[in-house]
# Entry
Amino acid sequence: MKPEQIREKSNEELVQLRDDLLEELFNLRFQLVSRQLDNPLRIRSVRKDLARVKTIMQERRFAKEEQTTQKNEGE
# Structure
């Protein structure tokens, strides 16, 4: 998933996507251990997507805090 696609999503959608990716990663790891995983590279792509989602969530959190700080300084 590309960062542009992730940025288009709302905060609620990002939380849901993060939860879905975490669940998928758990399932993939379980399949890996039980030797049922067909494509081991899928773990890598899920981990990267999860990192992208978390990064964008963190960027939004920092932007919101910065706006709050600037607003409070203006008063």
User: Anything to note?
Assistant: Helices lie at 3-7, 11-33, 41-74. The domain at 3-74 is CATH 1.10.287.310 (Helix Hairpins). The chain has a mean pLDDT of 93.
